[in-house]
Amino acid sequence: MFSKELSAIDHNTVKYMVDELQNKVKEAHSEKEKESARADMEKVRADKEKVRADEEKVRADEEKNRADTAENKLKEKQEADLRKDEEEIRRM
User: Fold this and answer.
1) How far apart are CA 13 and CA 8, in angstroms?
2) pLDDT tens per residue, range 67-77
3) 0.85 surpassed by pTM
């Protein structure tokens, strides 16, 4: 009888240890998945920040182009006015 009880205890201990190891494996797998998800989330955040920076650069470039266009139009007008003034002076 002592052997049967000891055998049952050994069996239960082994079963408990296997269950514990399986739980640890599941937890480790779960932690690995969490770490992978965290890494993916960080990558998405970095990509999002890069997109924002790219959008701001595009806006800045567009603003610079508008300013350059306005400056060129002003220069063209000033040159035309200067030519007009020179023509008037020659006529005098």
Assistant:
1) 8
2) 999 999 999 99
3) no
CA distance 49 to 42: 10
Q: How is residue 40 written in tokens? A: 């993916």
Widest pairwise Cα distance in the chain: 135
What is the pLDDT confidence band of residue 89, given thresholds at 50, 70 and 90?
A: confident
d(CA 53, CA 48) in angstroms, rounded, equals 9
Question: For residues 72 and 51, what is the distance between their CA atoms, to the nearest angstrom?
Answer: 31
The DSSP code sequence of the chain is -HHHHHHHHHHHHHHHHHHHHHHHHHHHHHHHHHHHHHHHHHHHHHHHHHHHHHHHHHHHHHHHHHHHHHHHHHHHHHHHHHHHHHHHHHH-
d(CA 34, CA 27): 10
